[in-house]
Amino acid sequence: MVTLLYLRRSGLDIIQNFMTLPPSINTSSAIQLWQWISEPLKYLHKYERQCGDIFRLNMLGALNGAVMISNPQTIQQVLTNDTKQFSAPGSINQILQPFLGDRGVILLDGHEHRQRRQLVMPQFHGDKVRGYTDLICSISRKAIDRWQVGETINLREQMQPISLDIILQTVFGLDRNERYDLIREGLVKVASLIESPLNASFLLIPALQKDLGAWSPWGRFLRDRSALDRLLYEEITNRRRNYQSDKTDILTLLIGAVDADGHGMNDLELHDELMTLLFAGHETTATALAWAVYWVNYLPEVKQKLLTEIATLGTERDPIVISKLPYLNAVCSETLRIYPVGMLTFPRIAQEPVSLQGYEIAAGTIVSGCIYLTHQREDLYPEPHLFKPERFLERQFSPYEYLPFGGGSRRCLGMALAQLELKLVLVEILTHCQLELTGTLPALPARRGVTLGPKGGIIAKVVSKKYDSLG
Q: 140 and 147 in contact (C-beta within 8 Å)?
């Protein structure tokens, strides 16, 4: 998924003084950094109004001097020139290192990144992903079964355990045992560090990462992460010792996977890959699910069209057939367009001086596509602030116009699984439970760590259920 980054600058400022640079805002760098942390969408819209669809950031430390782009042609130029004019080094994502470690695919560079991606990618495509459909539906139904009629629920909080159980069971293939529950609890604790903009500052400002004891936020995070690490290494050791080649969970597949040279992953690499999958696979999907459930309940006409489409399948609904429904796909696509979970593409670094939209970009400059601003372009998406699934029935968008999972060599590996989960869980909720939105409406987006999520959560009342128990 996309993250923020920190730029080490050398002579770049001196070089750029002699170049035609993209425009920038003259607000102080400290204020801009706080605006980016606290109100990122307001900050982005302000920049776009004043500077257009290419601009240079001026922040204290974070992203200082980086160039942001939201023109699809420029995004295509950058993403299709990976390793030529631009590189996408994993080291640029060091703010995620405390969560993911150093040896996961997101933080690897060059040949090593390509080799790991080739090793991991097959585990998230084709029959392997389709084989998880029954599991996704079963986990969803059991979660819905626990909701009580008349109960008020926070959609973001309710989607998190669903997506967490799905990723835990697809990744580990674990039954609900003691280790499963401990890993589940550990992930929730570690993820809590990024639940608010204030907590996110610990990631975005490295100077705050001080271990002042178990009572301090960073100290507590380090201890929670250490406990989770021990559990994951124990599971890796146990799985190697009792390896079963016929199992289809992702950990087993990764243990058995080898590259072109016949080399597999060691325990450290497996651990960091698991952390990447667990965090990228449940936090982001839970947020997207909350938004999807919100939109179909906020807009009655969207809900009715979706229910009518689902009804055409009759009572025996094949999950694979469900996942191919056109209007369902349009609803999920629009959900990921209007408030994409990731605001930015994986950053690139100019390998040589390059021209973007008539501006000269010096070698060493960070360039990042702004997914959010691209998805808000009036020329691509008329009335972009409105939720209109029909957009995706009326035309097909290019990978540079619609890119909720990033693009190029760094596009999210779990895209197919996330899309499948989003569709199937949404249908399970819609067809087995009637919800009524309450609280402050409309729901608005806000920073959630390094991602975008509903501000304060989305509150709904369980009005009725169409079955008593699923067992």
A: no
